[in-house]
Amino acid sequence: MDFGRVITAMVTPFDENLQVNWEQVEPLINYLIEEQQSDSLVICGTTGEAPTLSDDEKLKLIELSVRYAGGRCKIIAGTGSNDTAHTIHFSRKVEKLGVDALLIVAPYYNRPSQEGLYQHFKAVAESVQVSIMLYNVPGRTGVNLDAETTIRLSQIPNIVATKDCANTDQLTRILNDAAPNFLVYSGDDSSALPALAVGCQGIISVASHVIGKEMQSMIKYYLEGNIQQAAELHRKLHPVFTGIFRVPSPAPIKHALALKGIQTGGVRLPLVRVSEQEGQFIQSLFV
Question: Which parts of the sequence bind pyruvate (predicted)?
Answer without folding.
Answer: 47, 204
